[in-house]
Amino acid sequence: MKYEMILFDVDDTLFDFGKSEKSALQLAFDEFGLPTGAADYADQYKEISKELWRDLEQGLTSLPELGAERFRRLFLAQQLEIEADLFNARYLGYLGKEISLVDGAVEICEHLAGCRMAVITNGFNDVQKSRIGGSPLCNTFEQIITSEEAGCQKPERGIFDYAFSKLQITDKTKVLMVGDSLTSDIQGGINYGIDTCWFNPDAKENHSGVQPTYEIRRLTDLISLLE
Known about the structure:
The chain has ten helices and six strands.
């Protein structure tokens, strides 16, 4: 096999973040006495969150700031008197217990058991490690590299420098980055000079100008691609 190390993104690559987010939001709003809150405010929350994650990729905000800020903006817009920092802490606590895997995640990781595998994620350290640790993928990865731990995020080169150091990798030609985000996972891999595989289950058109080395619709498509 050409690649000796496979680097996986987490959210919407191995784990279904949409399902996890929906459940965690519902539980958090329930705790704060707003049982219809997740349904009432989900669309606006997602827009706010998407904008802040985009800012994070561009280095315009930090992960700790992002956490509470998304809820601060939402509650301000909806005139809700809820402490954003506290709500964010409760939400992250619930999110860390959510384990919804993408179809094929277990199968592809079992198939690649003879290959070195690690995670590079822009997510929160405790949340991502809790989710992976409580899932069938708990013993799969040599390292779980988070942006919170590394102090920088994809697509910055720094998080890959950090990962390569932790994993003691020297040959970039033997490494493949697999992820769903063109602007984060794929651009990050390109910036670092490693091959990339865009996981695109919804067959989205790519108008970004970012060109992955490979593109797959199902995670299990990696089997034939790698062999």
